[in-house]
Every structure is written in C-alpha cells, then in structure tokens.
C-alpha cells in the first residue's frame, strides 16, 4: 500500500465518523402545533339520508316528476300529507308519507 492510498482510507474513515457525529448532534425537529375551532357540542351529528325527511317542496317536485300536475296541498297534519293532484286528465286525492314522500293511498275523485 502506498502512502497516498493510506491517506485516502484515513480521510474516508474520518469523514464517515464526522458524519455520524454530526447526525447525533442534530437538533430535534420542532414541536408539532395545531389549532382548530369546533362548533357544536362535539357530538359529530351527521344526518344520513334515512334520518332526514323531505320538505313539502321536495315531495311536490317528486310528484311532478311522476307525472302529477295541478298539485295542491289540502292537509299537512301529523305524519301524512293530503294532496289533490291531476294525472292523465284524472284528479286524485293522494295521501303521502310526510317524511319519505311515498304515496300511501291514491283515491280517484273525478274525470275532467
């Protein structure tokens, strides 16, 4: 081995040991700090579609989508809505579930 070769080995060994010392003396990472605001009681209430009821406007829109026209609310008491509506030149009295919008009963009133 030549002196040049030994010098290189010593330099590499010295650098390797210095990099280990430098990493051991490195400062720890800064502390993690977060800030947030939460409104409400923290109960994380998230109504699913099965928990929320349709509005009267949404129910009327659903009836129109099914082909009912001249939709008129007669009674909005309790768990049902009573609605008069026409479909295909016939007038019906509909009893609608006020939460789901399902037609519970359909009674034909008269023909135009």
Distance between the termini: 115 Å
Largest sheet: 4 strands, antiparallel
Subunit organisation of the chains: single chain
Order of helices and strands: HHEEEE
**Would you count the extended β strands for me?**
4
Which spans have pLDDT < 50 for at least 5 consecutive residues? none
Strands side by side in the biggest sheet: 1-2-3-4
Overall radius of gyration:
38 Å
What is the mean pLDDT?
A: 80
**CATH class call of the domain at 56-111:** Alpha Beta
**Helix share of residues?**
25-40%
The appropriate CATH architecture of the domain at 56-111 is: Roll
Please describe the structure with a list of short key phrases separated by commas or semicolons.
single chain, 112 residues, alpha+beta, Nuclear Transport Factor 2, Chain: A, four-stranded antiparallel beta sheet, 2 helices
């Amino acid at each position: 081995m030549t002196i040049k070769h030994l010098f290189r080995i010593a330099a590499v060994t010295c650098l390797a040991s210095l990099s280990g010392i430098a990493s051991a003396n490195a400062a720890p990472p800064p502390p993690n700090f977060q800030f947030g605001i939460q409104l409400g009681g923290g109960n994380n209430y998230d109504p699913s579609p099965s928990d929320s009821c349709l509005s009267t406007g949404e129910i009327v829109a659903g009836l129109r989508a099914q082909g009912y026209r001249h939709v008129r609310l007669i009674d909005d008491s309790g768990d049902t809505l009573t609605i008069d509506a026409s479909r295909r030149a016939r007038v019906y009295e509909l009893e609608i579930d006020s939460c789901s919008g399902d037609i519970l009963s359909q009674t034909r009133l008269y023909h135009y």
